[in-house]
Amino acid sequence: MTVKILSIGLRGLEGYRVQVEVQEVPGIAAMVIVGLPDASVKEAKERVLASLYAFGCDFFDKRLVVHLSPPERKKHSPMFDLAMAIGILKAMGKLTAPASSDAAFLGSLSLDGTIQPVDGMLPAILAAKKLGFQKIYLPYDPTLPLHHLKDLDCIFVQTLEETVQYLHGQRVLSLPPVFRSPEIMDSPRKHHRDFQSIIGHHQAKRALEIAAAGGHNVLMVGPPGCGKSLLAETFPSILPGLSHDAQLEVISLYQLAGEKIESGYPPFRHPHHSASSVSLIGGGTHPKPGEVSLAHRGVLFLDEMAEFAKKTLDMLRQPLETGKVTISRISSTVTYPADFILLGAMNPCPCGYLGSRTRYCTCSPKQIQAYRNRVSGPIYDRMDVLLPLEVIDFTKETRVSESSETIRKRVEEARRKQYERYGKEITNGRVPFELLMEKSPLAKRQQHLLQQWASQHQWSNRVQTKIIRLARTISDLKGTEEIADESLWEAMTLRWLKTYTKQQATAR
């Protein structure tokens, strides 16, 4: 008799139903696993047989065939251990309880029969919910935000014996797991940096507020020590908190990558400029999320952007345009979400002092041009805001800055208007352009003005689209229903980056 037990397999964040089929066949005693298992799944036979022996069942004299269906998909995780053990017990008559078609079994087994969580438990649970499962048997993991999964019956089991007792209708008396409440996850954030502590840079703070409100990318250009890194590291303090769905997405990605994150807040990733393309985009034999996916719903900060390999930077084109990244390998093709705000920072030249009022630039025109060419034109095109920065004279700066909390409230209000306008959780920087124009069309005079500036500055169609998106965000911050002329003017100034030639810098 063939016994069928259900589990969940993962292909990136996408989950699919795995049917674990177990049958005893005549032949030499062994346990054979088929269905494209990888090394971690092949080793399951030793773990499962040892845990069954600890449970009091010895099947070392039997020949068991375990088939993981569908057979055409590679199985990568030890998540199927529990389902295999339950299937073997049922096939051998040690478990008489009927196998439910709406129950899934997840978890890895240790040699003494203890059930342990593995990487990717949350995306597997979310996939089970989408696939229509009503019950899931799994080990307890304190990092899971299970208060968001109220429609799913999660049965926590600690050992194989406890699972069998539960299936036979015996409720085991065990300590209930302590769940984290939504109030804890949504508690006020504590940031080490605040915009109020940054002296000057009022234009830069205004540009970053617009970027946070509309989800726009920013490239900061300025000499060393002018505050580029400080502004970028303070930027998350004005971002709104994540919604429940966004939290589940982010935690799922971090679980797949084997990293921890403080849930509830937008992630902030800051890779070094020596990072490889695989670490930035993602990859490996079994593709895992890279920095662009770990920054999903948050910020990716590339300091010294021109020092990154040009090939690596050009790989950002797809995620910046589509909000996701597709990784193709021989074994599988995986798509991960990668909807992030890109903050870039670079110097105006190799030495960093081109255009400075206090230092002399030692770079030749050829060196300056080669340095700027490290960031390709398509990447420049995908930056919404080009922000020039200069060193602040602290003796002349007397204006008091706003706190991050005050700015964040305006950002939250602007985003609320965008969500209401588009009917879903999407910002002006990511909404399809057709929907943007349908909800906020430009007047004829505004179109003519934008065309004149585009012709004068040789802006591409993508740049013109980004200016319209910026103008819509600025109008949302001002509280106007239509795109105002002042908003369009401000958006065009945010796209204009003053760059000095060697002769202009010398004359200055």
Automatic annotation (TrEMBL):
Which InterPro entries does the UniProt entry name for this protein? Answer: AAA+_ATPase, CHLI-like, Mg_chelat-rel, Mg_chelat-rel_C, Mg_chelatse_chII-like_cat_dom, P-loop_NTPase, Ribosomal_Su5_D2-typ_SF, Ribsml_uS5_D2-typ_fold_subgr
**Which part of the chain is the AAA+ ATPase domain?**
214-374
Q: What domain of life is recorded for the organism? A: Bacteria
Family classification: Belongs to the Mg-chelatase subunits D/I family. ComM subfamily.
Species of the source: Aeribacillus composti
Name-wise, this protein is: YifB family Mg chelatase-like AAA ATPase
